[in-house]
Amino acid sequence: MKIEKKTRNCFISYHHNNDQKYLSKLRKVVKSMKVSDYSLKDDIGHLTDDTIYSKIRNKMRSCSVTVVLIGEKTGYRKWIDWEIWASLRSYSYLSIRKKSFKPNGLLAIYLPVENHSVPKRLKDNIESGYAVSMRWKNLEKDFESKVNFAYWKRDNLSHKICNKRNRQENNYMNFFGFKI
Fold this sequence. Notes:
Blueprint: E1 7-13, H1 16-29, E2 34-37, H2 49-60, E3 65-70, H3 78-87, E4 105-110, H4 120-128, E5 132-135, H5 139-156, E6 174-175, E7 178-179
Parallel strand pairs: 1-2, 1-3, 3-4, 4-5
Antiparallel strand pairs: 6-7
């Protein structure tokens, strides 16, 4: 008897220029669970902030868990903050019920890099107990259980969501403790 793999629709949030190779590896390594990636694949930086946010939100409509790949520059990226912010919001459309959705579960994966730049909004949710985290080296054995735990928290611990920060306005770099 063949057991069907559970599908979880995940929005993968990551720094495209630095961490694309890890997303490719994630797709190859995770065999215990089918993962559908609804992240934005094309460069849409030329569009307005409102249009980009609308595209992010529309992609998330089909997702239940947002996976954030944490590398060396992740916390400095404006759109990663916006993706986490959008993930933690629910949307209710009274006239079109199919458009309504709950906040996503949140899973942080620490990549195998020397220094991690954790987005502040993600850190808030790890500290509150809402977000789940794991190390990249445990990807193959723990990914499925961590995604399912993030999904469970979405349904059972949404009161722990911490999403009060203003959205990040720009990308920046940390240079000896200074934002530049």
